[in-house]
Design brief:
The complex is a heterodimer of chains A (159) and B (284). Chain A has helices at residues 2-23, 33-44, 47-64, 71-86, 95-120, 128-156. Chain A is mainly α. In chain B, 39% of the residues lie in helices and 28% in strands. Classes of the chains: A mainly alpha (159), B alpha+beta (284).
Chain lengths: 159, 284
């Protein structure tokens, strides 16, 4: 039952991100909900489940894109692992630490994904506007997504 | 803790391996299968998201449209209120226009030369005594000019000009207790004096007792009167009083031909009465 709920939450997260980018972009910008979900799942879940959430959310992001299938899957898997390591040393449950982590890890993920793109596809997918603005939107979105995931975890045991 | 760390390490190695394989061999069967599997698994969520997102997608636009509609509605309500006020103002104007048209048509049929004037002031304390009109000496109005009112398509005697100023004049109404007119009683043509009482009725005096005066008889100005041209309707006999034993004439109440309460405009007949007849010569 829990696994079905997890799949539903996963699909709902992906659909929400897709819908948001379709309809609610502001000057072409929107928070990366898949990144935020991967980060929050990594904070809330155990290491294996957190990394799995990161991988599959990355796969969703890859499916939405047209290049480098597997790039985001690798990036978010590593993100989840990094969070797993970090949360042993920092209190990741507080909104401020989530905000700082989201800001820092957004840029790390962007650089990493850009490195992957340059290495595997010889393309540079990173726009300056996205690079400058999206981490801040992610930082704002992460505490909200964390609260939603936290409620889901408490009530239905998913994540 | 160590077991958890091992699990985490195994998991990350596994997922990194899968990801790297997908990255390294994008055209391989494995990558294609994974891509197609992911696509077929995930696209339904987007499909239904798009299907039902339609209702949500239009929410901002609908909300804006709702606000615009509300603003437009308020503006239209204001406009409607303004139009209602204009309509209310227009209704008296239309009736005034109709009345003036009717009176103008009547005035063309009058045998006297004169001009129309609007009543500009009535004093409640002297309601049946006098009023002011908006024409004066500059418009050729002079003292003792006859003032007519229009009632039910007929011209009736309202009074005479009493005081003249450059831009307006004061009219002494026939209902004023100081006003009087010599009248002719139809059809015999007997003459009598109609006087104002300061009320809405007139009093007719000096009617010969042998006259067959009856209620409803019409009175017109007499050719024998000096101030008013002959033939102007003055009123109708409302009530005839029996002769008193010590008097040799009878009296009657007369309803004026012109109702002062409904009068808005008057027609001032230029009389050109000789100054020696009006007494001005003596004053000079």
């Amino acid at each position: 039952m829990t696994i079905i709920m997890e799949v539903l939450v996963y699909l709902a997260t992906g659909s929400l991100y897709w819908w948001w980018t379709q309809n609610l972009t502001f000057f072409g910008l929107a928070p990366n909900l898949l990144f935020a979900a991967a980060l929050c799942a990594a904070i809330l879940a155990g290491p294996v489940k957190g990394i799995a959430w990161g991988f599959f959310l990355g796969l969703y992001a890859d499916m939405l894109g047209s290049s480098l299938f597997g790039g985001y899957a690798l990036t978010y898997s590593l993100l989840a692992y990094a969070v797993y390591v970090m949360k042993r040393h920092f209190d990741m449950a507080s909104p401020f630490s989530q905000l700082v982590a989201a800001l820092a890890l957004s840029w790390v993920c962007m650089f990493f994904y850009q490195g992957l793109s340059l290495a595997f596809a010889r393309i540079n997918p990173l726009g300056l506007k996205i690079f400058l603005a999206e981490p801040f939107l992610n930082a704002l979105a992460v505490p909200v997504v964390f609260q939603v995931f936290y409620l889901l975890k408490r009530r239905s045991g998913v994540i | 803790m160590s077991r958890e760390k091992d699990a985490a390490n195994y998991a990350i190695v596994f997922f990194i391996a899968v990801s790297v394989l997908l990255l390294i061999f994008p055209a391989s069967k494995l990558a294609n299968t994974a891509r197609i599997a992911a696509s077929y698994s995930l696209y339904p969520s987007m499909h239904y998201g798009a299907k039902y997102g339609y209702f949500i997608r239009n929410v901002p636009a609908n909300f804006v449209a709702l606000l615009e509609t509300d603003q437009e509605n308020r503006a239209l309500k204001d406009k409607l209120r303004g139009l209602e006020v204009k309509l209310q103002n227009a209704s008296p104007l239309v009736s005034e226009n109709e009345r003036l048209t009717r009176e103008m048509r009547l005035s063309r049929g009058l045998p006297w030369a004169g001009s129309w004037a609007r009543i500009v002031n009535k004093t409640p304390a002297d309601w049946y005594g006098s009023f002011f009109i908006d024409k004066g000496a500059e418009a050729g109005i002079s003292v003792n000019d006859t003032v007519l009112g229009m009632e039910e398509g007929r011209a009736g005697l309202a009074g005479r000009v009493f005081e003249v100023y450059p831009k307006f004049s004061k009219v002494l109404l026939l209902t004023n207790s100081a006003a009087s007119a010599v009248c002719s009683i139809a059809p015999a043509g007997l003459e009598a004096l109609v006087e104002g009482k300061g009320t809405w009725l007139l009093r007719m005096n000096y009617v010969p007792e042998e006259s067959a005066l009856a209620e409803g008889v019409e009175l017109v100005t007499s050719p024998g009167g000096l101030l008013f041209p002959p033939g102007i309707a003055v009123g109708k006999v409302a009530k005839v009083y029996p002769r008193e034993s010590f008097m040799n004439f009878i009296t009657a109440d007369v309803t004026p031909a012109v109702n002062v309460n409904t009068l808005k405009e008057v027609f001032v007949v230029k009389r050109n009465i000789q100054t020696d007849l009006t007494g001005q010569a003596e004053r000079k």
